[in-house]
Amino acid sequence: MRTSWLLPTVLLAVAACGGKPASAAGAAKADPPAGDGLTAFQQENGIGPVTEPVEVAATPDHAMAEQGEEVFEHKCGACHKMGEKYVGPALGEVTKRRTPAYIMNMILNPQEMVERHPVAKQLLAEHMTFMPNQGLSKDEARHVVEYLRTQAH
């Protein structure tokens, strides 16, 4: 009796059911994807180049915040205001609603965020305006976060 078809068939069935063959079981990540394909970290902190939590001090770094304010005025202020919805959502209290990593990922990776992240998708549906990628560096995005922290009351 020929059984050469058995192994490929079993592997295909296991893969189709979302399982992993025993040889691949050890390769699973500690942070498995949620039902929508996002890891727990991505659910909380967004999708993009920021893949670890962003540490912030108890109080804003005012030197970074000054640099962030300048970036915000030139790159973000045309669409965002602090206390009111403008083209995009009001950002005055955003640091109370979102993590620094989420904010940075939204700044640095808006396309993938609105395509895959449930909160970003909902924001797009509410505001009906796609946030363009402004080409900020990670440092500039971090400075914007620090500026936004100074705006939260």
How is this structure best summarized?
With 153 residues, this protein is an all-alpha fold. 50% of the residues lie in helices and 0% in strands. It has a single domain, classed as Cytochrome c-like domain (Cytochrome Bc1 Complex, Chain D, domain 2), CATH 1.10.760.
State the fourth-level CATH superfamily.
Cytochrome c-like domain
Number of domains: 1
Oligomer: single chain
How many distinct beta strands?
Answer: 0
CATH class: Mainly Alpha
Structural notes for this entry:
- It is built from eight helices and no strands.
- Helices cover 50% and strands 0% of the residues.
Q: Which short descriptors sum up this protein?
A:
mainly alpha, 8 helices, 153 residues, disordered N terminus, Cytochrome Bc1 Complex, Chain D, domain 2
Would you spell out the secondary-structure blueprint of this structure?
Layout: H1 6-16, H2 40-45, H3 62-76, H4 94-97, H5 100-108, H6 110-116, H7 118-127, H8 138-151
Helix pairs in contact: 3-8, 5-8, 6-7
